[in-house]
Amino acid sequence: MREFKFRAWDIENKRMIYGQTPDSPSSSWILALPDEGFLKMQYTELKDKDGKEIYEGDIVSVTGNQIFEIGNFFSERNIRLVEFNNEKASFGWSISGLMFCKGAQSSLESIGNKYENPELLEEK
After folding, report:
1. How far apart, in whole angstroms, are the C-alpha atoms of residue 3 and residue 36?
2. Beta strands 15-18 and 6-10: pairing type?
3. 64, 48 contact by CB (below 8 A)
4. Residue 107: CB partners within 8 Å, gap ≥ 6?
5. Which three-class secondary structure state does DSSP give residue 102?
6. CATH-assigned architecture of domain 6-121
7. What is the mean pLDDT of the chain?
8. What's the rounded Cα separation, in Å, for the pair 15 and 104?
9. Please, what's the largest Cα pairwise distance for the chain?
10. Any idea what DSSP says for residue 2?
11. What's the whole-model pTM score?
12. Tens digits of residue pLDDT in 62-114
């Protein structure tokens, strides 16, 4: 069964809000927040190599040769932004639309998100 979880970026207070609370085990209340002032993100149903949940807007470091992009294996650390691809109706990289697969989790490390750590996406 799919696990639907959400979080939101509070634009005014510059903080991430996670949906589950002691009073509400569901995070669906996040969807009721006003669109003005809050950017809502969905859980991808994947966890990184350390068991950390990966959400839309997260920045992941990809290592190893378990994931390939446009026919080429990654051979070094690559930083990617996780986004929802409407055409493929699934989560993937912002660059190529590569889709995640459960077996690739050991190659992913969540290192931040685009709101709290935008510097991670800057070209070096």
Report:
1. 26
2. antiparallel
3. no
4. 49, 62, 63, 64, 66, 67, 74
5. helix
6. Roll (2.30)
7. 78
8. 29
9. 47
10. -
11. 0.78
12. 876 544 444 444 445 588 888 887 777 777 665 544 555 555 556 788 999 99
